[in-house]
Design brief:
Blueprint (H helix, E strand, L loop, with lengths): L5 E10 L2 E11 L3 E6 L6 H8 L7 E6 L2 E2 L4 H4 L3 E4 L11 H11 L4 H14 L15 H11 L7 E5 L7 H16 L3 E6 L2 H7 L2 E6 L2 E6 L1 H6 L4 E6 L2 H4 L12 E7 L2 E6 L2 H15 L5 E5 L3 H9 L6
Helix pairs in contact: 3-4, 5-6
The structure holds adenosine-5'-triphosphate and magnesium ion.
Length: about 325
């Protein structure tokens, strides 16, 4: 990784007595799309809010371009673009007026403001709708405008909080292409999502978070490779799952076996071999499977293995 533009060290944040972020550390480089993947309430939005200086962490360090962003938020803000999970647009105003509003907040005015607004309208393909009130826009168009609002002041770091929720496939692909282009232009992009396949396709590195903690951090490919050939999720009667039945011990094709909430999770090296062995063992012990799922190695199986949870789908 080249020199990071953003470094987070041991970030902590509680609401009331509740820990929302619990010791997150990572670094993001220019020209990188860094994904935060986690279920509802994992702490993704809270993390982005702290990194983008919306509010400070209870503890921990944030360094942006060599500047301590907790002590000197005003110095780093001009370089940050934030696209919030909840839309932050004025429905009665046109696209152009919305963008001009955000541009002015960031200190742009006059000809420079006009040029930037036109440029980002082009970028998100909304130039021909520039005068129309935002309330007349489709979900996808509104999301694109939301993205444009975070870009109007030419930031070097872009925070995208679930930018594709409620977006049709065409606008989603548009957003993807655009985010990639910004990456290639050298922006550092932090991207939160709970869409596995989106993160797998788009992100250069992924941090998997749950309950405010970092569970894994690597490229999607490396995380997936670490899975062997996949995961078998096997439903068995409680008697077979009881520790004294030593059911999993008899399965040699499983690299690791864990029991969670009445299901046996088998990490397998060879899928065929594991399935044959599993069925043979069931027959031998006269045990009937109650369910069986095969998860090809993917971020979803990585996630399931790490947390025992499925993401929303
Ligand atoms: N303003 C707040 N006041 C109290 N608790 C909050 C507040 N914002 C978030 N939380 C709690 O902090 C935890 C983390 O929330 P956060 O919104 O950061 O998660 P998230 O990963 O973005 O979830 P989602 O996928 O639903 O957007 C959750 O338990 C949430 O209920
Ligand atoms: Mg969120």
């Amino acid at each position: 990784m080249s020199t990071p533009i953003l470094e987070a060290e041991d970030l902590q944040k509680s609401y009331g007595g509740r820990r929302a972020v619990d010791g997150l550390s990572f670094a993001v480089a220019p020209g990188e799309i860094f994904g935060l993947l986690g279920p509802n309430g994992a702490g993704k939005s809270t993390t982005l809010a702290m990194l983008s200086t919306l509010f400070p962490p209870d503890a921990g360090r944030i360094v942006i371009d060599g500047v301590d962003a907790v002590r000197e938020p005003n110095r780093v803000r001009p370089g940050l673009g934030f696209v919030p999970q909840e839309l932050a647009l004025y429905p009665a105003l046109g696209a152009r007026d919305n963008l001009a509003f955000f541009g002015r907040i960031y200190g742009l005015h006059g000809r420079a403001l006009e040029q930037r607004v036109d440029a980002v309208l082009d970028v998100v393909g909304l130039r021909d709708r520039a005068a129309d009130p935002v309330r007349t826009f489709s979900g996808g168009m509104t999301r694109r405008l939301n993205l444009a609002a975070g870009l109007v002041h030419s930031p070097r770091i872009l925070f995208l909080d679930e930018p594709t929720v409620g977006v049709d496939p065409q606008s989603r692909n548009f957003i993807f292409d655009h985010v990639r282009r910004l990456r290639d232009e050298g922006l550092a992009i932090l991207y939160t999502s709970h869409y596995m396949e989106e993160v797998e396709r788009l992100c250069d590195r992924v941090a998997i978070v749950d309950e405010g903690r970092l569970l894994a951090l690597d490229t999607p490919q490396a995380l997936i490779r670490g899975q062997g050939q996949g995961l078998l999720v096997v439903g068995l009667p409680p008697s077979a799952l009881a520790p004294e039945a030593r059911f999993a011990d008899a399965l040699h094709a499983a690299a690791r076996a864990t029991v969670r909430e009445g299901l046996l999770y088998l990490e397998v090296r060879d899928l065929n071999e594991a399935l044959l062995e599993l069925l043979a063992l069931c027959k031998e012990r006269n045990v009937a499977l109650t369910s069986l799922r095969v998860l090809e190695p993917s971020l979803e199986s990585v996630f399931l293995k790490l947390t025992g949870k499925r993401l929303r789908d």
